[in-house]
Amino acid sequence: MTTLKPTDFWRAFWQIIQSHALLWHHQGVAHGDISLKHMLCEASNGTGILTDFDLSTTSNHTRNHRDMLIMPPFKPMQLLNWHDEPNIPQRYDHELESFTWVLVWVSRRVVNVEECKYANIQPWRPNDWLNSSEFSVYLSKKFSSHSIFTTPDHHWLESPLQKWIDFWTGPPKNGTPPPAITISEYLQIFIDICTECAKENPIVTVPIDVSWVKGALKDTLT
């Protein structure tokens, strides 16, 4: 995926989000390890493909989240800071959040279709998340994400991505947990963010047809 041009990556990225959501809805499949290494593209046409379902579950997704092997850079905030909630059930929003952190990783590390592990173009290097405790990664994501700048190839993603980060790292309103919402409602939030940002920068428009979000997924709970 990182060998694609940024706009081609953006299209493949949304194709994978689509296939993941439809699998969750129609087959009850939770992937269990959303990360960049499991996102590939078809060589002939650049179509995004989600691979490696070795850790996937079906039915009611009752597997304990502590048994999941998601790498800290892509792990959802709640699962990085789970000590007060040891039995968190596996949910769709966890995996959707992992997609956000994949985008953070790519937009901060990939330059000229090459993943630069030791790039000196910015003071903060995302590979620090590979070598830190989960709680340290949690704190970094919560309090430092806005100081992490995109690479020159991905400046166009900065506005929508920061809004995505705010959605996952912001405090609950009035100190209460957010209400349970459907898969389609989660996806629509991100589609709406891209649509709003596209008024100033059309390149961030969602690059695939998204009519299926309000159709096939309309009443699907997470």
What structural class do helix, strand and pairing data support? mainly alpha
Report the order of strands and helices: HEEHHEEHHH
Question: What share of residues is helical?
Answer: 25-40%
Number of strands: 4
What ranges have pLDDT less than 50 throughout 5 or more consecutive residues?
A: none
Count of helical segments?
6
Let me know the largest β-sheet. Answer: 2 strands, antiparallel
From the N-terminal CA to the C-terminal CA, the straight-line distance is 27 Å
Largest beta sheet: strand ordering? 1-2
The whole-number mean of residue pLDDT values reads 83
CA-atom Rg in angstroms: 17 Å
Q: What percent strand?
A: under 5%
Lay out the secondary structure.
Blueprint: H1 6-27, E1 39-41, E2 48-50, H2 77-80, H3 92-109, E3 110-111, E4 114-115, H4 134-144, H5 158-169, H6 183-197
Antiparallel strand pairs: 1-2, 3-4
Description:
The structure is a single chain. The chain has 222 residues and is mainly α. The protein has a domain at 64-214. Helix content is 37%, strand content 5%. It has six helices and four strands, in the order αββααββααα. It has helices spanning 6-27, 77-80, 92-109, 134-144, 158-169, 183-197; strands at residues 39-41, 48-50, 110-111, 114-115. The chain has a two-stranded antiparallel sheet with strand order 1-2. A two-stranded antiparallel ribbon has the order 3-4. Helix 3 (92-109) crosses helix 5 (158-169) and helix 5 (158-169) runs antiparallel to helix 6 (183-197). The longest helix has 22 residues, at 6-27. The mean pLDDT is 83.
